[in-house]
């Protein structure tokens, strides 16, 4: 059974930092592209950051570029999202997402349960 368990959310003041973690189990972690999504109240879920199975610098939404950093530790089956210079508009539930895609286009996808991030003074 695949599980993605997020942690590290909470309340932080504007300008502060948080580090989210997502621990994965039940899958060949290094084969999966990992992403972070977020969903604010009354808004659609949006992709925040993505990182390939082999790691690398990652890809980011324009709204977080230069402030957020995605990374992964394949020895611990964990992906991280370091969030700096947080703004009130970063307030959302943050979700961990895993995808394994074959050349045919077929894919397996998994979601975590989400962790709340609130940026407020």
Low-confidence stretches: none
Termini separation: 40 Å
Order of helices and strands: EEEEEEEEEEE
Number of helices: 0
Strand % is over 45%
Task: Specify the biggest β-sheet.
Answer: 7 strands, mixed
The helix-and-strand class reads: mainly beta
Radius of gyration: 14 Å
Globally, the shape reads: globular
Whole-number mean pLDDT = 96
Strands, count = 11
Helical content class: under 10%
What does this structure look like?
The chain is built from no helices and eleven strands. It has strands spanning 3-7, 10-12, 18-25, 33-39, 46-52, 55-60, 68-73, 78-83, 92-101, 107-111, 115-119. Strands 2, 4, 5, 6, 9, 10 and 11 form a seven-stranded mixed sheet that branches. A four-stranded antiparallel sheet has the order 1-3-8-7, with no helix packed on it. The N and C termini lie far apart (40 Å).
């Amino acid at each position: 059974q695949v599980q993605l368990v997020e942690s590290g959310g909470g309340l932080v003041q504007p300008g502060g930092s948080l580090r989210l973690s997502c621990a994965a189990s039940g899958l060949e972690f290094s084969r999966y592209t990992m992403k972070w999504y977020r969903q604010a109240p009354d808004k659609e879920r949006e992709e925040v950051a993505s990182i390939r199975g082999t790691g690398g610098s990652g890809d980011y939404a324009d709204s977080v570029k230069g402030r957020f950093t995605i990374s992964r530790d394949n020895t611990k089956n964990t992906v991280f999202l370091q969030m700096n210079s947080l703004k009130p508009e970063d307030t959302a539930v943050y979700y961990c997402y895993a995808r394994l895609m074959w050349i045919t286009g077929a894919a397996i996808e998994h979601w975590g349960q989400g962790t709340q991030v609130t940026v407020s003074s």
